[in-house]
What does this fold into?
Amino acid sequence: MKLASLFSGGKDSVYSLYTAKKHGNEISCLISIFSKNKESYMFHTPSIEKTKHQAKSMNLPIIIAKTEGEKEEELKDLEKAIKLAKKRYNIEGIISGALASNYQKSRIEEICKRLNLKSLTPLWHIDELNYLNELIKNGFKVIITGVFAYPLNQSWLGRLIDKRFIEEIQILNKKYKIHIAGEGGEYETFVLDCPLFKKTLNISSYKDFKEGENSYRREIEIKE
It folds into this structure.
């Protein structure tokens, strides 16, 4: 099946794409939505503009759309981008990285239904601990680019998802109910390398921003 991937550059969208391709689907393009609202209900925001580097490393075209990020209204901008992908690449379906968010999944499915497209969510209700271990096992180099829940703090920014990370996030899950895979918005990620990339992306510089209590975001720059 010819597919477009809703693509944030984080672990969930990249691993969903990886899974769909592994099952024999053709990835025709990526779709990234740049939201002005950092608290968007639908879209990942830290370092979102760096998805173009990931697209280049995978040799895939990318459709970039912008949105003000207003709840529900942002879905119209998403639908326009998906319509463009269908027209330009003749796609038959959309991949998304939803793990447990009914809000995101249901709205993507509604758009796909209107456009006569299949909606694929390869990670839906996946065991989150197994999932993080699979990322490591399959050579995904994933860093933390945002934290938004107590007791996570600025020291977590830039950390790799590795065995130590998994051990520590499990402890926080038991004590503070932090979702192990960050599906509750507790943390955001960016993928620097995976089996789909022609080369590893390297960070040339970064800047951290405090956005509130226990809320920190890292904007990265990628070496050309």
Q: What stands out?
A: The beta strands are 2-6, 26-35, 62-67, 93-95, 118-120, 141-147, 187-193, 203-212, 215-222. The domain at 2-120 is CATH 3.40.50.620 (Rossmann fold). Residues 74-89 form the longest helix (16 residues). The mean pLDDT is 94.
